[in-house]
Design goal:
- The protein is of the alpha/beta class.
- It has helices at about 45-50, 75, 95-105, 115-120, 135-150, 165-185, 195-200, 220-225, 235-245, 265-275, 290-300; strands spanning about 5-15, 15-25, 25-30, 30-35, 60-65, 65, 80-85, 155-160, 185-190, 205-210, 210-215, 225-235, 250, 260, 280-290.
- A hairpin with a 2-residue loop joins strand 1 (about 5-15) and strand 2.
- The chain is elongated, with a radius of gyration of 24 Å.
- The two termini are about 25 Å apart.
- It binds adenosine-5'-triphosphate.
- Adenosine-5'-triphosphate (ATP) binds near residues 14, 19, 37 and 42.
Length: about 300
């Protein structure tokens, strides 16, 4: 696996409070990597460090394989665009003029890229309207366009969907997916909105109290999300005897619903098998653990330190 961005045992303290504890991240080239954690978990701090806005107390990181103490790290940072906390937007300028300022800041030789960028983020029809009059979603999209000015290979976005309405969330999501697909931009995105993150990310890092408790690809995550089949039956005691006999893992919930945990259980076979024992299944449904419950289990099982 080729990693475009890695951190190695990064620690960071503010006074006596240690907010990052041996954070090691591995972001594959071309990934959309979702950094998931509750408020105060340390997401912004690690992003600030990777972007060169803050120094770690110990540990290191590498961008395109170049270590942070290497003299050419600044050349590598030019290939990284970031929005950390609020995007730096001039409220009295139009979207076009905001991008012009950024092009000048980066010393770009022309403004050719601006029209394409405005299209990429869906702000091509905003004309002379000043950014101060933009909706929150438009401001976020302008911020992303500013971060994209230098045609970065890596985009770092700290909670870009925070506070957006459902339509704004969909627009940002589609834009990021498109950027990743068409330009191959690697994206590191943080959020505490797990469900939303699961619609864009293909790799995840779970952070809790400054510690990475798990890194996992979407593919492996999907395999480890527990699948269950819930049934309601005419005779619960007989059903338990049957399930115990088969060595199946199950839980009895409220209203005597039985949840059976098995990936390869075929509902119709189960109904037939139970019928053979004189048990009628009156209701059956299949469920899959959500990202949210997976995350909550990770935190509670490992007290923020363990694995699944
Ligand atoms: P949020 O989603 O709320 O932004 P986060 O996961 O991004 O949370 P950080 O902003 O990285 O978390 O903060 C991690 C911890 O570090 C928090 O307890 C925060 O209060 C603390 N912290 C962050 N910046 C500073 C600072 N400049 N001085 C002191 N403490 C800080």
């Amino acid at each position: 696996m080729e990693y475009i961005l890695t951190t190695d045992n990064i620690c960071k303290s503010y006074g006596k409070a240690q907010v990052l504890k041996d954070v090691s991240l591995h972001i594959p080239k071309g990934a959309i990597y979702g950094l998931i954690g509750k408020n105060g978990a340390g997401k912004t701090t690690i992003m600030r460090i990777i972007s060169g806005l803050q120094r770690p107390n110990s540990g290191s990181y590498a961008v395109f394989g170049v270590q942070n103490d290497d003299i050419i790290i600044n050349n590598m940072r030019r290939r990284v665009g970031a929005i950390i906390e609020n995007p730096a937007i001039y409220k009295d300028l139009s979207a076009y003029d905001n991008l012009k300022v950024q092009c000048m800041n980066l010393g770009l030789p022309s403004y050719e890229i601006i029209d394409e960028l405005l299209k990429t983020v869906g702000l091509e029809n905003t004309g002379k309207k000043t950014a101060g009059k933009f909706s929150l979603g438009m401001k976020q999209r302008l911020g992303i366009a500013i971060a994209l000015c230098g045609s970065p290979d890596i985009l770092i976005l700290d909670e870009p969907i925070n506070g957006l309405d459902p339509q704004g969330i969909i627009e940002i999501r589609e834009m990021l997916l498109d950027l990743n697909k068409t330009k191959g931009t690697t994206i590191l995105i943080s959020s505490h909105l797990l469900d939303e993150l699961s619609r864009v990310a293909d790799n995840y890092g779970f952070i809790e109290n400054g510690k990475i408790i798990k890194e996992i690809s979407k593919e492996d995550l999907e395999k480890s999300l527990r699948k269950s089949t819930s049934i309601k039956v005419s005779d619960i005691d007989k059903t338990i005897t049957f399930l115990d006999g088969k060595g199946l893992e199950y839980e009895i919930g409220k209203d005597n619903d039985i949840s059976i945990f098995a990936d390869d259980l075929i509902p119709s076979d189960l109904v037939v098998d139970l019928a053979g024992k004189g048990i009628t299944v009156t209701n059956i449904s299949q469920n899959e653990e959500t990202l949210e419950s997976y995350f909550m289990n990770l935190i509670s099982d490992g007290k923020g330190e363990g694995n699944v």
